Automatic annotation (TrEMBL):
Full protein name: MerP protein
Matches recorded under InterPro entries: DUF3347
Domain DUF3347 per the UniProt entry, residue ranges: 44-134
Organismal lineage: Bacteria, Pseudomonadati, Bacteroidota, Flavobacteriia, Flavobacteriales
One Pfam family named in its UniProt record: DUF3347
């Protein structure tokens, strides 16, 4: 009887150990999947922010160059590495995101770049909203341009008017 109880307890301990190992392995795999997924989209977001910063400086040539970098980042996204939610969102915005980026990169007309940036911001917002950004992202709004943009900084720096109205706008949403 004593041996039977010992055998049952040993078997139970082994099963618990296996479950713990399995749970830890699964958690590790899920974390790895999130890291792969976010690393797929992070260059897209980083290049968007670089475009915003170039527009704040009212530098149309830099804006065009940074938008070419965004196109490269868009092309580098491997859809099979995105999680299912991001994949669906990516499929909805990728054509518009690409078209807007091509439009901005193809001109040095600052007014046209800023106008197209409105649409680029909308597509980027739709994508970043469902992903897990590495740090908080602030959706900001300018009533004069009647347009939104995204920023990693809470302080408003308006890409639609640059230095002429740098602080015009406010934070309307924090994405975490």
């Amino acid at each position: 009887m004593k041996n039977a109880i010992t055998a049952v307890l040993t078997a139970f301990t082994i099963l618990l150990s296996l479950n713990t190992i399995s749970a830890n392995e699964i958690k590790s795999l899920l974390i790895s999947e999130d890291i792969i997924s976010s690393s797929q989209l992070q260059p897209v977001f980083d290049n968007y922010f670089a475009i915003k910063d170039a527009l704040i400086k009212s530098d149309s040539k830099l804006t065009s160059a940074k938008t070419k970098d965004l196109l490269t980042a868009i092309e580098a996204v491997k859809m099979d590495k995105l999680n299912s939610t991001e994949h669906v969102a990516w499929m909805k915005v990728v054509k518009k995101l690409t078209a807007d980026a091509k439009s901005i990169s193809g001109t040095t007309d600052l007014k046209k770049q800023r106008e197209t940036f409105k649409s680029l911001s909308k597509s980027t917002y739709d994508l970043i909203k469902i992903s897990k950004p590495e740090q908080p992202v602030y959706k900001q709004y300018c009533p004069m341009a009647d347009a939104d943009w995204l920023s990693k900084e809470k302080a408003v720096q308006n890409p639609y008017y640059g230095s002429s109205m740098l602080s015009c706008g406010n934070v309307v949403e924090t994405i975490k």
